[in-house]
Amino acid sequence: MSRTTAPLGPAEIVVDLDAIRANAEVLREISGVPLIAVVKADGYGHGMVESARAARAGGAQWLATATVEEALVLREAGLDGPLLCWISSPEVTPGATYAAAVAAGIDLSAYSVAELDAIAAAADRAGRPARVQLKVDTGLTRGGIPRAAWPDVFARARAGEEAGQWQVTGIWSHLACADEPEHPANAEQEAVFDEAVALAEAHGLTSLMRHLANSAAAILRPSARYDAVRCGIALYGLDPAPGHTPDIGLVPAMTVRAPLMMVKDAHEGDAVSYGQHWVAERPTTLGLVPVGYGEGIPRSASRPGEPEAAARVGIGGRLRPIRGTVCMDQVVVDLDGDRPEIGTEVVVFGPRSAGGPTAQDWAQACGTINYEIVTRIGGRMSRTHVGLR
Ligand SMILES: *Cc1c(COP(=O)(O)O)cnc(C)c1O
């Protein structure tokens, strides 16, 4: 058990690394191909280095981050082995950062000829060949080599390989609608990806690792699995496609909990919190929980005017709805006449077994996705890792 952040408040995040390890095993088994464990954005709020170690323990052959800087932090923490990153640009990424990545044996994703030129300079500086993967745009229209530029970039990639500047190790793309398994964009993107792979082969770029699937596609779309799957959210035990994903035994790794700070009576007509948006229609008891948007609790969880839709927390094994506006430092919840002792554990969210709601329940109440709930959580809370020993 290790404390990684100094606590500034009484609430805490507990991350179960055994759950991450087990989720990695499940994803390897269900996909049948190597797992690329995505640990960007501080491991979706779970701790990047700790999550990476847990994923490796669960058999993840590859790790992946968004930025080059994140990948370098993993190397500094002693995480060896295949490691891919995908956010860099010759205009904004310092040459020294590219060179450090090449020296550290990190696979860089190339989006343009200009970026390949920058990687060539970095390989020169590092005194060893780089490792490059080609990221093609197949319909997400975010990053990736636009179709019109494929021939130029593939030709430059092959020339650099022949000149010993790098080894091209992979070709990959990213799906726009993987969480909607029936969406026609999935098959369209697969077809465009196949064209890109064929064109790369025609340019002499053979035996590339091909990967397209994120968590949703890894679980729901066998045709998108190719040579590896890049899983983030499912690694942390959350559902990548609510309403579509069968129960495959993923376990949410994050629990957020806090001690109950105060219990008070509310009388009929009492109005709660900023704006007085919730008014007691009958006498009840209210509890004060020391988490708010300063901890990353979305203010949208309040749902003014729709008390039945507000987010809930678990106290004493029952779900207790938030009443009134979420504040910076605290929320008020309805205890429905109960008077739990001060200090009673409040489960803000976690696995069902923790006795409260899930991050997915919060996402639904807040009109967002579970990714955003766990990635933004934090603020003053301590974060403790358990398991994996
Ligand atoms: C974040 C990300 C992933 C992981 O997606 P999940 O839905 O969390 O599995 C995979 N590939 C790319 C390019 C990403 O940006």
UniProtKB/TrEMBL annotation:
Coiled coil: none annotated. GO terms for biological process: D-alanine biosynthetic process; peptidoglycan biosynthetic process. GO terms for molecular function: alanine racemase activity; pyridoxal phosphate binding. CDD domains: PLPDE_III_AR (cd00430). InterPro entries: Ala_racemase (IPR000821), Ala_racemase/Decarboxylase_C (IPR009006), Ala_racemase_C (IPR011079), Ala_racemase_N (IPR001608), Ala_racemase_pyridoxalP-BS (IPR020622), PLP-binding_barrel (IPR029066). Its cofactor is pyridoxal 5'-phosphate. The active site is at 40 (proton acceptor), 274 (proton acceptor). Residues 253-386 form the Alanine racemase C-terminal domain. The keyword Amino-acid biosynthesis does not apply. GO terms for cellular component: cytosol. The modification N6-(pyridoxal phosphate)lysine is found at residue 40. Substrate binds at residues 142, 328. It comes from the Bacteria. Keywords: Isomerase, Pyridoxal phosphate. Pathway: Amino-acid biosynthesis; D-alanine biosynthesis; D-alanine from L-alanine: step 1/1. It is an enzyme of class 5 (isomerase). Its EC number is 5.1.1.1. The keyword Isomerase applies. It catalyses: L-alanine = D-alanine. Belongs to the alanine racemase family. Catalyzes the interconversion of L-alanine and D-alanine. May also act on other amino acids. This is Alanine racemase. The gene is alr.
